[in-house]
Amino acid sequence: MRQSLSFLSVATLACALGVPLASAQYRGEEIVGKIEQVNGANVIVRRDGGAEVRINVTPQTEVVFQDSGDKKLFPNPTSSDLRAGMGVRFTYNDGNPARIVVNYVPASTGSEAAPAGTQQIKARIQSIGQDGREIRADVAGTARTYIVEDGAQGRAVRRGQLVVLTVADRDGRQVVTRIDPAEAFGTVVRVAGRTVVISVDGREETYGVDDDDLLDDVRSGQRVRFEVEERAGGRRVVTALRRE
């Protein structure tokens, strides 16, 4: 007579063969594991026990780097900084965690946009020195003061403006070598997949997006305000976009 295996027997056999069983997650459960894959807003994490967990992230997902050295590599972390190989911890929250703590970063992972020896920091200008050679800016809620290498760049920004500062360590001093606006205005020309073409100051500029949701309800002819980050190979990515 054929006998059916109980679930317990199947689980025991799977463990003996070293095959991880898929497990269901519940709201409020803490997940600890390593990122296996990042595809836009979809992230796959392999738990320490071997099970696979799929989650969704958005620009509103809070990302925190635990190690002080990693914080320097990612001074203004967002969900777009998540990479395969990173160790993470989060509360499941029905697959949409509100906060992700990165507790391990592979040695090969770093800030791809900044040249060697520098870092890029997104900040909001609070004040500018009279000659433009010193600025005070809000960085993730903390006021910081920087020396600006080229006073003309310092004089070109305005109080309250959101910018990306390229900062180099010069003999222990944090010196701003370049200031780029993080926010721009334009008119949408067309949207194609994960690419959007925007007319900025009469020029058509093409940008990619990490989060497909940014382009929901975006149509040709709309006036938009958006933020851009430079990525490896000169690729420009829109990280925030809203209609005017």
CATH superfamily placement of the largest domain = Nucleic acid-binding proteins
**Spatial order of the strands forming the largest sheet:** 3-2-1-5-6-4
Determine the number of helices (DSSP H or I, runs of at least 4 residues).
3
Q: What is the third-level CATH name, the topology of the largest domain?
A: OB fold (Dihydrolipoamide Acetyltransferase, E2P)
Specify the biggest β-sheet.
Answer: 6 strands, mixed
Strand content: over 45%
Question: Low-confidence segments, ≥5 residues, pLDDT <50?
Answer: 1-22, 110-114
Radius of gyration: 22 Å
Quantity of strands, as a count:
16
Number of domains: 3
Quick check: average pLDDT?
Answer: 80
The H/E string reads HEEEEHEEEEEHEEEEEEE
The shape is globular
The top level CATH class name of the largest domain: Mainly Beta
Describe the structure using short key phrases:
244 residues, mainly beta, OB fold (Dihydrolipoamide Acetyltransferase, E2P), 3 domains, five-stranded mixed beta barrel, 3 helices, 16 strands, globular, disordered N terminus
Show the helix and strand layout:
Layout: H1 7-17, E1 30-39, E2 42-47, E3 52-56, E4 62-65, H2 68-73, E5 87-91, E6 99-104, E7 118-128, E8 134-139, E9 142-148, H3 151-156, E10 162-170, E11 173-181, E12 183-192, E13 195-200, E14 203-209, E15 223-230, E16 236-243
Parallel strand pairs: 4-6, 9-11, 14-16
Antiparallel strand pairs: 1-2, 1-5, 2-3, 5-6, 7-8, 7-10, 8-9, 10-11, 12-13, 12-15, 13-14, 15-16
